[in-house]
Each structure stands twice: as structure tokens, then as C-alpha cells.
Fold this protein.
Amino acid sequence: MAIIKERIVLRKSRRKGERMPHRIKLDELQPGDSLLVEIVIDKEQELTDYYLFEPEQLEKRKSVAFRVSGDQVYWLSSVTPKPLLGVQAERLYPQIRSEKTQRGEKSDKTFRTKDRRVLVFNDKGVLISICHSLRDVAGMTNLREKAIDKLCKSKRPSFETGLSFRYWWKILDFDITDFTLTAFRYDQLCKRNTEKRNK
């Protein structure tokens, strides 16, 4: 039993939608093997989807097929794999991260000087999680680290998820376990603390 990985980079015409589906042959799979599919929808935007086929889904099959419309992947032949976050795929197949580095793809680590805790607020602005780093938030939300960093600084909610993010100021006087804290209240605390420091 093993996990076999298939990486597919879509052409621009493929993203717009084509009549012919993209077909993945299962010749290399042995009975009991799982299939991890990495679909690079947009390389420039670093938009990649991951899917896992369990062995029982692949029994007696010679191939699986999918179509893409916009940024959405549609699986055909009544077989639906399990969608994975990038972090989940890396845990199953650790070579994914090293392969990206070898190919010279951009890494979010290049813009980051050090890890900082990040507060995550839901679409109503209520604190729901405190993560140790941007990478942890990216794994939880399936957003890019660079995008989360920008959202922390701009204080705008994510268009894709509705979540809001803030960097945690260690000097702030508040209970970090208080999950009734809102993004608005946190911003007020930050502003008040900045005014005190400037006096």
C-alpha cells in the first residue's frame, strides 16, 4: 500500500473550460494504493487544489477524469475524491514542499522575517482562534501566507472566507483566552496603546 502522486499543471485554455476532460491514467497503481492528485489551476496566482482517492474508489478503474470551469474542478464518472488542504497533502506526501523548492517556485517564507501569532476572527468579527504562525493559519484556512499577512495589515476581511486576521501585540493588556473579543475591540485596544506610547 502506497500513496501515488499525480501533478497536473493546467493551461490557460484548460481553465476557461474545454470539451475534452482531463484524464488521469491509473497504470502505475497497485491494488491498495491511494492516489494524491495535485492540480495547479493557476501557477502565477499559486492556486493549487489537492485531492485524495482512496483505494476502494479506484478498484477496477483504468482512469479518472475531471473538467475545470474557472477555478472549480469537477470530477466525472461518479467518483468524488476527498479535497485536501495543502498542509494535509504535505503530511501525506512530504515531497510536495521539497519539489516546489526544487522547481524554484515562490515561497511565502521569503517575505517573512519571523513568525508572529495571529488572531483569527469569524465573519461576525468574533475571535475564534489564535495561531502560532502564518503557516498555521494558512493550513487552517487554505489561504496563502502572503495573503494573510496583507489582510493582517490592511484589517480587511478575506473575500474567500469572510475571516479577519490580526497580528497579536504582546504588549496589549487583554486576556488571550477571551474568545468574546471582537476585531473591532482589538483594533481599539491597539489604537489606544499606540496613543499611549506616543505621549
About this structure: Helices lie at 12-16, 55-58, 86-92, 95-102, 134-141, 145-154, 183-198. The domain at 108-198 is CATH 1.10.10.10 (Arc Repressor Mutant, subunit A). The chain has seven helices and ten strands.
